[in-house]
Structure formats: structure tokens, C-alpha cells
Predict the structure.
Amino acid sequence: MNAVLKETQVMEAGAQDWVDVCALEDIVPYTGVCALVQARQVAVFRLGNSDEVFAIDNRDPNSGANVLSRGIVGSLGDQVVVASPIYKHHFSLATGTCLENPDASVRSYPARVVRGRVLVATG
């Protein structure tokens, strides 16, 4: 399943609200899925067969299309990135920074796996 676009539910309250996005097994290793998190499209990526996950805005600011979840995951130097499928700009999965044009960066979100579920922080 490469696209999981659905309304999500808030799992916990606190300093940050964590939204349950999907089961970790729903994300094929080294790919992303899209989830609707409080009316925002968020791209959620899984690195390898681990429970390491990242979340950034799904909207590519260079093209205006919601496509980052469909990009190619890889690394440039020591940074884990996704390459946008349209103009191939690279976005850091840790920070959302666009390496080719920092002015076109996207928001990154804390993400984690709890009991096999992927959670994204909204606060």
C-alpha cells in the first residue's frame, strides 16, 4: 500500500498531540505514504525494515503538487532525503529543508512507532 490518505485520530494528549496514522507494516520499507493529519497532507516515510519513521509536509513547494510521499528515499552525504518525483529536489526527512533551495523547505513533524502503530505529532 503506497498511499494511505485518510482522516486520522488523535491518540494522546499532552504537550504534543500524537495522531495515529497507520500500522508500521502498511509502509513498505524505504517508501512513504500520505496521511491526512488534522486537515494537512503529511508524507510519512519508513527507513528499511526498522521502526525509524519520518514525517514532512506532502506538498512539494516547487511544483505545488502533493507528491512528496511518492518520492524516492535515499541519502545525500549524511542526510536522509526524499527526492520529489516532479523536479527531483531533495528534502531532508529530519528537517524538511530543501537542499537545492532552502527557501522552498517544508515542515517536518516528530514521528514515532508505538506498539506497531505510526504516530505523528501535530503540536
Notes: DSSP finds no helices and eleven strands in the chain. The CA atoms of residues 71 and 84 lie 5 Å apart. The chain has one domain: 9-121.
